[in-house]
Amino acid sequence: MIIDYQNIEELKQMNFKGGNGELDTRNYVDEKNKIMMSSLKPGANSGFHKHETNSEIVYIISGQGHFAYDDTTEAVKAGDVHYCPMGHGHAMYNDGSDDLVYFAVVPEHI
Prior knowledge:
Layout: E1 11-14, E2 22-29, E3 33-40, E4 49-50, E5 56-62, E6 64-69, E7 72-77, E8 81-84, E9 89-94, E10 100-107
Antiparallel strand pairs: 1-2, 2-3, 3-10, 4-9, 5-8, 5-10, 6-7, 6-9
């Protein structure tokens, strides 16, 4: 199965999960997975959230930023992968002057 993000409507979300600023995303969703191609605008962040029934894998395509992950801070740049296992929490921050572009997979475990 090919997911063609060119044919998926882009959603502009403000203050995603209680964060600040704009997140632009194209999402494929079925009963077991959410697969996203997204960009977090400069200065924006997602709100801190815990993955209760799923996990999240985030591959950074371009830009730079950091994650608040549980009680730590992790810097990310293009080519890095951030993993948030089920039962853990995180928030993503765009620290750069360009969009933080990423590909993410959120599989349901329960």
